[in-house]
Every structure is written in structure tokens, then in C-alpha cells.
Amino acid sequence: MLYLSHADTQRLDLRMTDVVPAIEEAFRRVGNGQAVVAPRVRVLHPPLEKNNMGKGRPWARDLRIIPGAIEEIGFGVRLGTSLRRQAGGVILVLFDWQTMELAALISDHLVHAVRSTAPCGVMAKYLALENASTLALIGSGRLARWAAEAVCAVRPIRDLRVWSPTPAHRRECVAYLQGRLGAAIKVREVENSEAAIRGAEIVTTATKSLEPVTKGEWLSPGCTVLCNTPEEVDQETFLRGKIITTYNDGILTHVPPYHSLVELVEAGKLSEVDFSTELGDIVAGKIPGRTSQQEIIVGLNPAFGILDAATADFVYRRAKAMGVGTELEA
Description:
alpha/beta, ornithine cyclodeaminase, domain 1, Rossmann fold, 2 domains, eight-stranded mixed β-sheet, eight-stranded parallel β-sheet, 10 helices
């Protein structure tokens, strides 16, 4: 069994140009019926009251267990905790597909952000305009940075506009992404989220906000919105866009809720049919993604155990090839 510490994962120098194709292949297998996933388990304290889906994230502590399996790749399980929305203990576990033996234990502090946002690259490839060159990034933390890199790995982005509410964080994010992505892409901060989103061909959100950070009225025809946490998208965006998810099951029962979407369903303005299209079926070629240049598409990226299995396998294989990590007795 291979153990990879946080320092080990840093030594792997992960790049979305390498990770996104692995996640794309995972979605192709999902679409072809070669994967299985169980619902995420979330243990909260204090527990939620009956019929409370956790709007505002009122709990103090939580434990998340996210399992998934992909044929010929392996079984993966993510175990993660947090304290008042702060980082806690997180580990990614990989079991070998052939033997079902424990193959790897991986520190998930860095890998979690990669795993969580790599689907943005797959969604951008299959849903965004082919020549999309302008990206609005709402957020400046770990997930935001990896999400931007994922989009830039598959689309010819030349103008990357960054907004988050803290100027120092914004500037740090801009400097990081400029160094990471190179001079061919202009990375710049803007004064507010509207300035970032208006005219952008792709919008990626990855924030800690408990309320929407987008407004549907700001979106240009043909825009693709990629959402990484449940609270970020407003009702008008959902009403204007075609909704595609990485994983449909559990959208309406997600904790915390996609509250703008839930409220629209409860009001009868949308139904489950309106967000029944999954990314895996598009990647597998079963159904089309974008059908016109003017279409606005909203991609939702909830927790999905397939991502844990695929990312764990990718990281494990890369570590073995580079001789990184510590072999332990199982």
C-alpha cells in the first residue's frame, strides 16, 4: 500500500492538462454504464432539524463519506471533515480493481481541489463555445484557481478576469494564475463580479458564499456557467440556461441545498426534467451538449464518488511512476 502525504502530493506537480483527460475518461465510462456510485453520507453536528436541508450551513462539525467505483480503474472513497467551514482531516482511499486490496492512502488537502474542479475542464470542453477566449473567475481560493486552470486546459482562453471580495486575495490569485498559465493568457483583477461576468464566454464560480454570486441578467448569449458549490447561482441564471449536471441523483436532496434551484422547483417554475441531463451521457456521445451558439448552459458540479476513484487512480499511478510516497504494510 502506498501512502502519499501532503508534501508528496505537492511533489507530483499536478497539472490540469494531465488530470482533465483522466476525468473525461471517467465520465465516458459513467455514460457507458461502467461505473457505480452510492449517495454521499454527511454526518452533521449539531444535526439538522427535520425538513431542514442546511441552507446557510448551520452546523459546527461535519463528516463526509463519498464512495464510487469505475470498471478497470478501482474503488475510491473520500473521507473528509470540517470545523465551521474550515479545513479538517481529509484522506482519499483507493482499492485495486483486480484484487480489491488497499492500494493507496492519499492526503486529500491538495488533491481535493483538483478532484473537485477537474470536471470544469470536461464541461468546458463539451459545453462551452469552441473558440471561447474570455473566462470570468468568481472566487480566488484553492478551488477557484484549479477550476480556472481546468478551463484553460481545454479552451483558448486569452482574457481571465478574477473577482473575489477581498482585494489582497484577488491580487494573490492573479499573480498565482499568471505564473501558472503563462504569458499567453492575460490574468487581471476586476472591480466587481458584474465586470467579470458581462461579456464573458465562460463563467466559473468557486466561492465560500452562502448566497448567489451571479445574476442571470449579466450573462451573454452563448455563455457557459460552471458552478462548484450549491449556493452560487441565482434563479435568473437557472431560468435562462440549459442545466447540465455531473451527477443528477441527489441534486434536490443535496446538503447544503441548491436553494435557488429548489425554490424554483417548489414554485413550479422548473421541474426535475429541466436538469435531467448528465455530463457522462454527453461525453459518451449518447446525447448532444450545446445545440446552438446562442444557448446559455449552466453546469452543476456536485460531490460525486466517481471523481474520487478516478483522481485517486491518477495520483497513485503518477506517484508510482515518479517514485514518490511511502510503501506501508496493509
